[in-house]
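DM from R.C. (forwarded with permission)

"hey, sorry to bug you on a friday — could you get me a structure for this? deadline for the figure draft is monday and I only need the backbone to look sensible"
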Amino acid sequence: MFLALDIGNTNTTVGLFDDENGKVLPNPLKVWRMSTINGQTSDEYATMLMNMFFCLGYDAKKISNVAVASVVPSLNSVFEELIKRCFNKKTFFVSYKNSGDLIFATGNPKEAGADRIADVVAAYSIYGGGCVVIDFGTATTFDCIDLKGRYVGGMIAPGPVISAQALSLKTAQLPQVEMKKPFKSIGTTTVECIQSGLYFGYVGLVKELISRIKKEIKVNHIIATGGLAGLILSEIKEIKVILPNLTLEGIRIIWEKNNRRVQK
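My reply, with the result:
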């Protein structure tokens, strides 16, 4: 079995893939999430990870390879130690240096996050050129692939949850509220007003950025992913596809491309 980990700022997503005749099969057998806690030790993360294997009935000894996309550099060595101890494997880290056949048309490929690289590799593998990937997470990222299959860059905006948190933290009288679709746009209580501003304001943000992208490149497919992808998509008709496990699939594809090169 193959293990893919997407270490994000809020959550770490774990995908367990089956393999057959030395090839990792698409579509994870199981996906679960752990809270990403900066400062937590490899022992603490190992306990959470191995408990999930035990609870779900999977044998950790059957893990043949592990690949990681991380946007939390301080945790890389923690997970590297964990993976060595729990699976006796060397960790493969996704980066701009080993991103398969991805062509960077951006100014500085070093600045591209590993999760964004995995997203665009998976999207291009599935849909070809002319794709936009919107990853709704702690930050909401927009990543664009042109018709020639080149990664041409994108946009980064605060995610819905941290937008709500920032509003509460920076004001004296506004409470922290759950971001959800209100019944109507004009709120009659403080909570309703905040929810309306956050929700419909975020819908407007996403629609405007999509509109501007379409003015600059030809777009054939807009793909949503990330833990918060389903939050506002009923309002955004431009998005036709939701692929919750897109990042994990990208990690798998990148690892396989690099593994084939090593075997040659």
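R.C.: lifesaver. The two ends are 22 Å apart (CA to CA).
me: no worries. The helical segments are 42-56, 76-87, 114-127, 160-169, 190-216, 246-263.
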